[in-house]
Design brief:
The chain has a single domain, classed as Alpha-Beta Barrel (TIM Barrel), CATH 3.20.20.210. Helices cover 47% and strands 11% of the residues. It contains 16 helices and eleven strands. A seven-stranded parallel sheet has the order 1-4-5-8-9-10-11. Strand 2 and strand 3 form a beta hairpin. It starts with 9 loop residues before the first helix and ends with a helix.
């Protein structure tokens, strides 16, 4: 397994609040349906799960955006729901409806039987993909590994799929919090093992996607999401083979809790587009790096508008150019499948060329 530092390590340096040559940029869902080459590879795979479970094809789509754009990091191509799938809940994708589970967690007996899977036994295809991608990257840029947060995974596990009102999981949260804590504790154990296995196989940073944490009430977020995120960060490898392994927490809708997230022990906090990044920096100080946070829908606008909006984010953060530190440019959420690929080029060039 490769063990040298990436030739372009601006992403890692920014997360560790070290000086960088330029503001690094990568995009959530940068390998995805907005790229025609991705769509062609997915068609060859047959379906989304088959694509995720083929290390060679997962590597292929991971590298596709890097072939097009001068991005500063690659992110493992996979899905957050691989973990509950490995727990035996029966993941499948309904055409036009998104992910579904055959056996959602609603009964106390099923919840009590829930066990954290050994990632090397049940998620070996993901770890094989990590190894394959690291080798293919040849240390050009860092590789990011990831997982869903325990609460976000639990939303899918209890609801049985996506949800607008989270009725089932919130009923459990208020009526039987002991059952939800049981799910979250097992899932926390699973996520720690999964992310550490990714690190051991080559991931050079890890990100935890807390997509649905922002749907919680204030006290519930602290108890059912943030506390589990803190446990995960505490359980992660902080270094591997002599290199620091930074971690990022992204809670969509988490602007109310930035200070608490920044105190969780993570190295970087992802911001959605509802937060002013300059205000966020003032609130958290130098405790963590910040990642974000352009509205993904800006990428539907003409290139001159994309440039102007990106500069607003860079200016609001307040430091850019040689010696700058602590900012990883990204979108405030995943890139839309309808984004014109040439608009991404305009964004990447703007971020890399920006100087005060």
């Amino acid at each position: 397994m490769p063990d040298s530092r990436p030739r372009n390590d601006n992403f890692l340096r920014a997360l560790l609040k070290k000086p960088v040559e330029r503001t690094p940029i990568w995009l959530m869902r940068q390998a995805g349906r907005y790229l025609p080459e991705y769509c062609a590879t997915r068609q060859r795979a047959g379906d989304f799960l088959s694509l995720c479970k083929s290390p060679d094809l997962a590597c292929e789509v991971t590298l596709q955006p890097l072939a097009r754009y001068d991005l500063d990091a690659a992110i493992l191509f996979s899905d957050i729901l691989t973990v509950p799938d490995a727990m035996g809940l029966g993941l499948y994708f309904e055409t036009g409806e998104g992910p579904r589970f055959q056996r959602p967690l609603r009964e106390e007996s099923a919840i009590n039987r829930l066990l954290a899977p050994d990632p090397r036994e049940r998620l070996g295809y993901v770890l094989d993909a990590v190894r394959t991608i690291r080798k293919a990257l040849d240390n050009a840029v860092p590789l990011i590994g990831f997982s869903g947060s325990p609460y976000t995974l639990a939303c899918y596990m209890v609801e049985g799929g996506g949800s607008r009102d989270f009725r089932h999981i919130k009923t459990m949260l208020y009526a039987r919090p002991d059952l939800l804590h049981r799910i979250l504790d097992v899932t926390t154990e699973a996520v720690i093992a999964y992310l550490n296995a990714q690190i051991e196989c080559g991931a050079q940073a890890v990100m935890i996607f807390d997509t649905w944490g922002g749907s919680l009430a204030d006290a519930a977020y602290a108890e059912f999401s943030l506390a589990k995120l803190q446990n995960i960060v505490a359980g992660l490898h902080k270094t591997w083979e002599g290199e620091k392994i930074p971690s990022i927490i992204f809670t969509k809708g988490g602007g109310l809790w930035l200070e608490k997230i920044a105190a969780s022990g993570c190295d970087g906090v992802g911001l959605d587009w509802n937060v002013n990044i300059g205000d966020a920096r003032r609130r958290v100080g130098d405790k963590v790096a910040l990642q974000g946070n352009l509205d993904p829908n800006v990428l539907f606008a003409p290139p001159e508008t994309i440039k102007a909006e990106a500069i607003k984010v860079l200016t609001a953060f307040g430091v850019s150019g040689p010696g700058s530190t602590g900012h990883v440019f990204n979108l405030g959420h995943g890139i839309s499948q309808f984004t014109p690929p040439e608009h991404v080029e305009a964004l990447v060039e703007t971020v890399h060329n920006f100087r005060f």
